[in-house]
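Hey L., structure's done. Input below.
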Amino acid sequence: MAFGLRQAFLLGAGGALLAAVVVVLARRQLISLRYALGWTAIAITGASAALLIPLVEPFARLFGMSPTGVLLVSVTGVLLTITLQLSVSVSGLQSQVRDLAESNALLARELRDNESADSA
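Output:
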């Protein structure tokens, strides 16, 4: 088996495995739909790697890469996009948690102040 075909087969097998894992995680509602869609896009790209090789060959020649290298770069781009989106989501959640903790501390102090004023 040629080197490029072996790479495509490995990408395909990895993509099929990833697709199965994403389906299980999505059914158990352990990942949100938007992340499941991103991971599914990666899985489909990997699983269909052997079919996509003729389509990406012109780009591969243009950039001096193997077709599977072009596919790996595209999958990496999707992974980076998911990672950026996750970073934005986590940063927003951290900000919300900080604001809630501050509000909770202010309310607790106000409650203590009111209780001490009532008991005096």
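The CA atoms of residues 35 and 102 lie 31 Å apart. The chain is about 90% helix and 0% strand.

-- N.
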